[in-house]
Structure formats: C-alpha cells, structure tokens
Protein: DNA-binding CsgD family transcriptional regulator
Amino acid sequence: MEAQRVKDDEEAIRSALTALKTATGIPVTMYGTLLADNRIHISQWIGLRTPALQNLYLEPGAGVGGRVVTTRRAVGVSDYTRANVISHEHDRAIQDEGLHSIVALPVIVQREIRGVLYAGVHSPVRLGDKVIEEVTMTARSLEQDLAVNSALRRTEGGKGAAKSGRMMNGAEWEQVRSTHSKLRMLANRVEDEGLRKELEALCDQMVSPVRVKQSTKLSARELDVLSCVALGHTNVEAAEEMGIGAETVKSYLRSVMRKLGAHTRYEAVNAARRIGALP
Structure:
C-alpha cells in the first residue's frame, strides 16, 4: 500500500513537471519534497545539466525553497546569488548548475505543505508574468492531483484500486479534466434541452467523487466559460465555442473571479477545482 502511494504521488509530480516544461518552454523544473524535519529534498527534476542539485537536501529556511516553506508563499529571484530576500547556503550548487532566475511555490494539500515546485533558467533573464501564472496553475493542479490520490486511498474505492494495484496517475487525471471540459462544450452545442441536461449531469458525475460542500454556486454558463479556460482557450476562442460574444465571456469570467476570490483566469480554474466544480 505504501509503495503504491509513493508511486501514485511520484507519477503526479512527474506529470506536473513535464506539463510545466511543455507549457512554458522553461528549461528546468524541479520538485522538492518537504521532510518531517522541515528539510527539503530535491526529489524530482527535468532539465538539470549537472548533478549539483539532484537529490540535494536543503536545510530548514535555506534558499528559495526554505523561504517558500517559511512564508507559505511564492518566491522568485532574477539573480539567485545576489538576491537579498533569501539565504545563500547553497550558492555553490546553484553556480555549478548555472541557474540564474528561479521561481518557487508551495504545494499545499489539506493545509499542509507537501513540497515545493520550482522553475528556473540558465540565463540572466527575468521570468515573465505568464511563466509565473503557469507555475502557479501547475502547483494548484498538482495539489488537486495529490488530494485526489489521498481521497481515493481513504475511500472503499481507493482500497479496491490499491488491491488491484491500479489508480489514475497524473496524466490520466489530466485526461479526465480535458474530457470534462470538452463534454461541457458539447452540451453547450446541443439544442435539445433534455439531452443537454443529461450531458451536464454526466459532467457533474465526473467531479462528484472529489466534490466538497460548495459555499459558492456557479451557474452552468460560468462553468462553461471555466471549462474553456481550462482547455487553454482565449476569450475569443471561448466565445466562438459557446456562440456568444467575447465581452459576454469577459463578463462571466469577472463574475466567476469575484465569486471565487480569484485574481486571474487560471486562479479561477484552480479555485473551481478545489470546490469540486471542475475535475
């Protein structure tokens, strides 16, 4: 059971690192596991050129990761070795790897920090807002994946899956999310009201295993817009998909972000996932 738990979580983390690298083109993505003694172990990585950071253990509070854990907030530096907001116990390893700009976020499940998600580049460039948004979205999606893994293990269904040695990994769960979004778009194009309601009911069933009590109610149209955003559609593309105007899409997004307390479209998607409105 423990071996299966570790494997499921490792697959989710690996999938998140791969997805982040693909979405942003960022050369280095890493995950640091937070240990019981508050050290961070760089346990998974993609794009490192040297072994300097591989399997590195960071002391509590050290470097970017340590500050992330201490503050429970995102931390970014554009010149690591000169940054005055972090400590510098691991400058030698950073210099050996040749990293300059790094951004890191906490991965929090059930209010506990499980680890730190990193993205970095080997050149002295500042990471833009779009990259930071993607890192944030990836961290929130990974939180959902790890939470789902934990929920499945706590339920009878999770026990059955563990006995059979099979649970959805991160990539498979992402496929479920994509299917959910596309199914909502299909329902939006169906003119028969009865059939449309049946399709929407299927969408609800896809998220019901991880649904929590919702204090925020989103309308069907608001969920449709969020489903488009989850697929990476722009406002114009979402408008074309839904057969409405781009300004109407913006209006729905503003309403959703206000209800969910989100500041960006990506934060809204992740907030909707946390309340079980999206898978």
Residues 3 and 151 are 17 Å apart (CA to CA). The longest strand covers residues 112-121. Strands lie at 28-34, 40-46, 57-58, 75-77, 101-109, 112-121.
